[in-house]
Every structure is written in C-alpha cells, then in structure tokens.
Amino acid sequence: VERCGREAPAAAQLDGALAVFHCAGIAHRAASWQDYETHNYRATLELARRSCEAGVARFVFLSSVIAADPADAYGHWKLRTEQELLANHGGHAMNVIVVRPALVYGVGARGNLERLVRLVQRGMPTPPAGQARSMVGLADLCEALCLLTEIDPGRDRVLTVTDGEAYDLQRIHRVFATALDREPGPARWPRWCWWLACAGYDALQLKPLSGKTWQRLFRGQVFSNAEICQALSWQPRQCLEDVAAAMVTEMMAEATG
Fold first, then answer.
1. pLDDT digits (tens, 9 = 90+) for 207-222
2. Alpha helices, DSSP H only, in 129-190?
3. Whole-angstrom distance, CA of residue 35 vs CA of residue 73
4. What is the pTM of this model?
5. Percent helix, strand and coil across the chain, each rounded to 5?
6. What's the Cα-to-Cα distance from 168 to each of 27, 39, 130, 191, 216, rounded to whole Å?
7. Distance CA 112, CA 217 (A)
8. What is the spatial distance between Cα 20 and Cα 149, in angstroms, rounded to a whole number?
9. Residues whose CB falls within 8 Å of the CB of residue 256, separated by 6 or more in sequence, listed in order
10. 118: which of 5, 80, 155, 197 lies 20 to 30 Å off by Cα?
C-alpha cells in the first residue's frame, strides 16, 4: 500500500499499481466554485489520466451520495467528476469504479456530525423526527473498499455504500445524548420553532433565507446498498449505536487536549 497524502503520487508509485483509490478533495468546509472545480474535479481527472497511462487496472473514486441529487457546488462537481471519469475511461483498459458513501460516522468523524454532538452536549432539546437518511460506518466503508482490490464488481460501476439503516434527526440525537449520559427527553418544540431557529442561524452566518441549516438537520434521503452487497458479497456489520460512545469519547478528548 502506497499512501500519497496531499501530494499527487509520483510516477514510480503509479507504475505497477494494481488499483488507485482517490479519496482526496475539499469537504466539510466552505470553498469557492473555482476551488471545487480545481481540486475536486480537474485534479481527479488528471490523476485518472496518469493512472491510465501507467497501466493501473482499477481506479476507485470516492464520490458521495450527494451526487445523486446535487444541491450545491460540492455535489455538482462530484457528479461532474463521475460523469467525466466514466465517459473518458468507460470500456477502456482501466476500470473505473465510483463509490458513493452515505454520511460517514465513526471515530474521527467531522463536519455536521461533530457539530451535532457539540449541540447535544450543550443541551440541544430533542428535535422532531424529520426525514430519514442513510449513513455508513467508517469500518464498514473501509472493508467494502478493501474488497474492491480482491473482487471484480464489473466494469464501470457506480456503487452506493450504506449500513442499511435509516436515521432521522430524532434517532441521531437520542444516540448521541445516550453516549453523553444525557436524558434525551420528549420533543417539546413544534417544527415551526425549529424552522425559526434554523433561519436565525442562517442569518447569523450571513445566509438569510437559504434554508441550509434546516435542510442539513431535517432533510433526508434513503439509498439502497443492495447493489454493492451483491457485487462484493458484502454486508455491513455496524450501526451508529455501536460506535457513538467511541465517537463522543474521541471528540471530548480532543476538545480538552
């Protein structure tokens, strides 16, 4: 295994490589349209081109389920990258596999999940259920990716990875509250109060009427993992309840350390 970090792999690293897993890109932070295009789109296509020239047999691109229905620059460039990779290399010597993970949880998780843990720690009241969404554990995702070095799932596939569960905001809140030794309590605020609170937060972030916070908390989308389970003879082994305590312990230790 050759790990390249933030630098593109050298030619010597690509020569003789059986597979390239491309996981790099901008995520979990604000970025301009141009930055997404440069780092998440063009850099990926350039690495795929170099990999193909080096004779790499399989190129695995970590995309996101957001690409299924992009609503922002991140999702737009994920989908555009998928399309270009499959158009440029589909049916050729290098097999392109696009992996679309759902929201990833596990020790070291950042982004919206970390923010939610902090809010629950500070006494966030139990929210209404909201729409359900798919998620996947980090260990399960890594296991599925490793199987792609051993099993041929077929040419030029787009595979969605989830743990097979459906999580709404109320369930996620309850899981993290339990991990923090807090009583979740009943949902007392009506939905319109939550909508106002989300709108107020957007206004503080200089994004009035954007609805982004409401969508992040309450908008859901459930995806099937049947295709990857069948292609790799794989089954997820964990759910959020299994790893929430370890996640919270790591986040609290980092905050105090």
1. 777 777 888 788 889 9
2. 138-147, 169-179
3. 10
4. 0.90
5. 45, 10, 40
6. 22, 32, 6, 14, 11
7. 9
8. 9
9. none
10. 5
